[in-house]
Amino acid sequence: MKEIEIDCPCCESRLLIDVRTQTVLRHAPKASLDEFGKPVQDGKRWDAAARTVTDRGSRSEDAFDSALSREKSRTRDLDDLFKKAQKKVDDRSQRHED
Q1: How confident is the model over 28-51, as pLDDT tens digits?
Q2: In angstroms, rounded to a whole number, what is the distance separating the alpha carbons of residues 87 and 81?
């Protein structure tokens, strides 16, 4: 991945851009830069990132549990569908015999 850092001419923020996808990977306002122009790492940003990761993890667990319960009931659901289809076939064959 090729990345470049540039300063925004409008707001003077430091932007980290992925050249291949043309997306902004990081945005750092001028006030949050150190004397070398690099973003200052602070606890608030770290805590926010940790909360985001934790939230995604719990959503993934919920999605997994939901998929697991659907899979467990899938056999029963398929059996029900097969029985309904078999009943339709039986009903049609009885009508044709009469």
Answers
A1: 887 777 777 677 776 676 777 778
A2: 10
AA letter at 84: K
Distance in angstroms (rounded) separating the CA atoms of residues 85 and 63: 31
- Is the dihedral angle over the CA atoms 1, 10, 45, 48 positive or is it negative? negative
Q: What is the 3-state secondary structure (H, E, C) of 45-93?
A: HHHHHHHHHHHHHHHHHHHHHHHHHHHHHHHHHHHHHHHHHHHHHHHHH
Give yes or no for a contact between 33 and 14, defined as CB atoms under 8 angstroms apart: yes
The answer to pTM > 0.70 is: no
Q: Where are the domains of the chain?
A: 1-40, 42-98
